[in-house]
Amino acid sequence: MSDGIRLCELSELARGPLGFDPFDDGQDTVFAVLKDGKVYAYTDICPHYGDTTLPWKKNAYLDHAEKHIVCAAHGALFTIEDGLCVSGPCRGQFLAAVPVTIKNNTVWLTESEAGENKR
């Protein structure tokens, strides 16, 4: 039984959020953020507009204060812990959470999620 798709070492997230291309789509489709010892992962799509990615450059997922996830295109702000939009055009909507597990200090996209999205 596989652990899923390997995203990164936990220590890599300590330096800041990271985007990943786990299904070889040619661009980051998932990102992960470490906050207070917990990893939060989401699809890299703003709920305001169905195909808009969040960062303005690679791995730029947080606002200047590093308190919220930010959509560079719309200025929307999302809580890190649950992906809730607290400011912007999609207020009240959520980023799509992606289940991850941590095993031996490695972050994995869970097997069920990997199987559902495999192309």
From TrEMBL:
<protein>
    <submittedName>
        <fullName>Rieske 2Fe-2S domain-containing protein</fullName>
    </submittedName>
</protein>
<dbReference type="InterPro" id="IPR017941">
    <property type="entry name" value="Rieske_2Fe-2S"/>
</dbReference>
<keyword id="KW-0408">Iron</keyword>
<dbReference type="Pfam" id="PF00355">
    <property type="entry name" value="Rieske"/>
</dbReference>
<dbReference type="InterPro" id="IPR036922">
    <property type="entry name" value="Rieske_2Fe-2S_sf"/>
</dbReference>
<feature type="domain" description="Rieske">
    <location>
        <begin position="5"/>
        <end position="109"/>
    </location>
</feature>
<keyword id="KW-0479">Metal-binding</keyword>
<keyword id="KW-0001">2Fe-2S</keyword>
<keyword id="KW-0411">Iron-sulfur</keyword>
